[in-house]
Specification:
elongated, disordered N terminus, 18-stranded parallel β-sheet, mainly beta
Length: about 450
């Protein structure tokens, strides 16, 4: 018996008729289904232009038309489906002023693949929030201003999102990534926020590139208990506190970042280890350019520049095993480099020039450090100084001190031996080499053109 296909026919009695399903007919039907399916797949998803009330949940591609949600007591717009786009067309979503809004301007509670673009959000608790494992979202060209808490909040395991070209002005925190990983923030700006411009808390493996923080009341960029993040070519300017603050955070990389005219340190590592700062610049900050302190271990600072800061260029305090190499410290009001109560640190091929204090200073229990192939030039005080008690077993090798206002090398009050080896002191206004306690081993050094006579035998520092 041949197989038959029954097709309903629109006739009053609802009867059907039989069509024999021959191979030829089957092939024709299959070809037709392929053609129709392919044509349908080329038709883009529709975009609906809507007037959205406060608290509206959208589930399709949406383009706002005037008037947008305004004076909202609760949320402005809620995302209700994955893989959709919300385009606000530059319209402003606003929260209630009196009584103040308790909601979020645009809220995604967990839908993936959503794009939010060209939105302006103000007057809410949070401007735009990604929450509850929201992934693969794109926030682009949005502006969040004058919101009570965060301008942008990426929260609660919301990973793999992109925030690009957004602005956060006059909020609490500009951009906050909280308990979330592998997000990318690029070319965003945070200005005049009452707390930090950009903050990472309990977050790992995020990338911040080309972002700018200006005039924020706290830090420009803050990392708290956050590891494995990369910050590249970001800028912090005129912050009310530290430019870049890495607090109890390990294994981060800051590369090519700039911190200028901040009210505290330019870069600060506090109880943070195994971080790398490379080619960063700290200029005109009210305290130190770079400050490594309180049990921050095994950090690398390389090719960084500190200039015009009110205190030191580089300050390592109560921290061990730091490596500073090929860094430059110039025209700081205080010393170029200070090691304070810090040990096993390497300073190699660093330069200190025209600083208001010493070029390099080891003080207050700094021991077992190595200073190799560094240069101190035209500093107001000494080129190199070891001063204070319990500064022991330090090796100064192949360093050069030239035209400094004090001594070339000043070594004082060490309880056991330090070594000054293969170094040169030329044309300093003080002596070439000074050893106040007789506990320094000299070998292979040379001195010329220094002003007073040497306080050590000519054979040790001629």
């Amino acid at each position: 018996m041949s197989k038959q296909l029954y097709i309903a026919k629109s006739v009053p009695n609802g009867l059907g008729y039989a069509v024999e399903l021959t191979p030829k007919v089957a092939r024709a039907l299959l070809l037709l289904s392929i053609i129709v399916g392919s044509a349908l797949s080329l038709i883009p998803a529709p975009v609906f232009a809507v007037v959205a009330p406060c608290g509206a949940t959208i589930t399709v591609n949406t383009s706002l038309t005037a008037p947008p949600p305004t004076n909202c007591l609760g949320n402005g717009i809620v995302i209700g489906a994955p893989n959709i786009t919300l385009n606000c067309k530059g319209l402003v979503l606003s929260g209630s002023v009196s009584p103040p809004s308790t909601g979020i301007g645009i809220y995604n509670p967990g839908y993936a693949g959503v794009t939010i673009t060209n939105c302006k959000v103000t007057g809410f608790v949070v401007g735009i929030q990604l929450d509850s494992s929201t992934t693969l979202n794109v926030l682009k060209s949005d502006i969040a201003y004058s919101n009570g808490a965060e301008g942008f909040l990426v929260n609660d395991s919301s990973d793999f999102n992109l925030l690009a070209g957004n602005q956060a002005n006059g909020n609490g925190i500009g951009f906050w990534v909280l308990s979330s990983s592998r997000n990318t923030l690029t070319d965003n700006s945070a200005k005049a926020n009452s707390q930090s411009g950009f903050a990472l808390s309990y977050s790992t493996d995020n990338a911040l590139t080309g972002n700018k923080a200006k005039g924020n009341a706290f830090e420009g960029f803050s990392l708290y208990l956050s590891s494995g993040n990369t910050l590249a070519r970001d800028a912090a300017t005129s912050s009310g506190d530290i430019g870049f603050n890495v607090f109890t955070s390990n294994g981060n990389a800051l590369t090519g970042d700039m911190s200028t005219n901040n009210a505290h340190d330019g870069f600060n590592l506090f109880s943070s280890s195994n971080n790398t700062l490379a080619r960063d610049t700290a200029a005109g900050n009210a305290l130190s350019g770079f400050h490594v302190l309180v049990s921050s271990e095994n950090n690398l600072l390389t090719r960084d520049t500190a200039s015009g800061n009110t205190l030191e260029g580089f300050f390592v305090s109560q921290s061990n095993s730091t490596v500073l190499t090929r860094d430059a410290s110039t025209k700081n009001v205080g010393d170029g480099y200070i090691l304070d109560t810090s040990g096993s640190t390497l300073l190699q091929q660093d330069s200190a020039g025209m600083n208001g204090g010493n070029g390099f200073l080891l003080t207050q229990g700094s021991d077992s450090n190595v200073l190799n192939s560094n240069a101190a030039t035209r500093n107001t005080a000494n080129g190199f100084a070891v001063s204070g008690t319990f500064n022991d077993n330090n090796v100064l090798n192949s360093n050069v001190a030239t035209t400094n206002g004090g001594d070339g090398f000043y070594l004082q009050a060490s309880s056991t031996l330090n070594w000054l080896l293969n170094s040169k002191a030329n044309n300093n206004l003080g002596q070439g080499c000074v050893d106040t306690t007789g506990t320094t081993v000299f070998f292979g050094n040379a001195a010329s053109g220094n002003s007073p006579p040497q306080s050590v035998p000519a054979a040790e520092c001629p």
